[in-house]
Amino acid sequence: MNRDILSYLEDYPPRYAPEWGSGGIFGLKYYRGVLYYTVAFEAISRFIDRDRIVEYRYELVGGKPVSGGDTYNAVEAVDDKIYFGGWVHAPAIHTGRLGSGGTISFTNKYSHVHAYSIDEGRTELLWKESLHDEKKWVGEVSDIIYDPVNDRLLLARGDGHENLGIYALDRNTHRITRLAGKPVLKGAHFFDYVCFGAHSYPEGLEGIYCIDLVEDKTVYKDYSRKDIDSMSIDGDSVLMPQVGTAISSYSRFFLFTKGGVFIGNPVEESIEPMKFIRLFDFVENLYGPLRTMAKPFGGGILVAYNSYTHGFLHTGNPELYSRSKILNTIVGPSVLVYITPSTTKIVGAYGARITGFERIGDRLVIAVNNMANLGELDATPIDIGYRSFLIEPTDIVNRPPPPITYSVPGYLVDTNTFGGIPLTGYREPSMIVYASKENKLYINSYTIDLPTDNIIITRDVVDLKPGLNKISLEDYRGLIVSFKLRKTDDKASMKIILQ
Description:
This protein has about 500 residues and is mainly β. It contains three helices and 40 strands.
């Protein structure tokens, strides 16, 4: 072979893979000349180098056909091993139509951790677990973080019904031990700790666990709804801050959630308490850094905010249809965001989802998908999305930002603060508001400053008349802007135009 690794990347159109909606391409990791990724829901893991392609179909877990694999980017690399985890149906069971929707059985759904040996080109199953229940499953493995002090893998498990929390997996004996019991999805190193966001559905963040790697103990800080609201730098409520991804940088812990990012020191809050900065907040719409990545890039942070990660079409409860409308409202594209405080910049705009990205030399490999994970009655025997790769130059972060339009209906935001849109690099940002009544629009502007107590919020007010209102945002170039209507206007339509 001896070809460019990227020449072996493929597109993945709909194929047989029983699950809810669409999965994606997850776990992108380039390590020691090998590019790894997993295609969900087909449960295909690939390891590509210049001389060979090794493909693994989860035959070590159970019977065929399989579906699943990973939908949270659970991957880590240590020595000559690439560790990858997640969940898989083995074999998968599509139980057929139920009215206009469909269902699947979870009887054969397993959580798993595997190891791929780069030297041997071989995959080994380290651990698997299943509840063997038709409607419930054990916690999926949503993150894997290496503990170099104790030579073990820390596993985050936050999606499931039983066996949730933080677990330690011994790399040699493969023995698994529970360290903490609240559901956690993602975590990151923070000095000599590893910190995880504890969460619940649909409320979101409930607290932060930090595993002390030196003393091998767990520190937990519990947050009430009131606590979280008090962290907001703009003084307004933080609604449903569902945990997305995490990273440590600039001596702070960054926990990206739906609606924004929490930044600070979760271990010693006397040094710098955790604060919430609003980014891409569209209230109950799940636009956010969900089922994607945050990575160090050029000394800063590159993170994705997705426009359509979760939704549902069919439900047994008619009262949920209004909720379905909110989840299925598309306010704008998915974006790649580059954070180098005090600058926050949109560097790329794409379709429904960015499921992962990785740097290989001077190129950035981006995994994308045009469909969301859907609800339990939206199961089909195939993955309904089109999964593919895009290749961008790494200097994308220093190029002009892409033109974008966000379209925000009044029913989505009510009188809650929304937005948190970075205007860095845009020459003529503006806003058009179609109002059905006289109203006032509040405009907040700020930057992500470190320490966060240096952040200054300015608030301006614009009078809205019934009909068309054109508002220039040029005075806010280089800043982040968020908005709030004084009075409810369900018939209003607001368009934020970035160019």
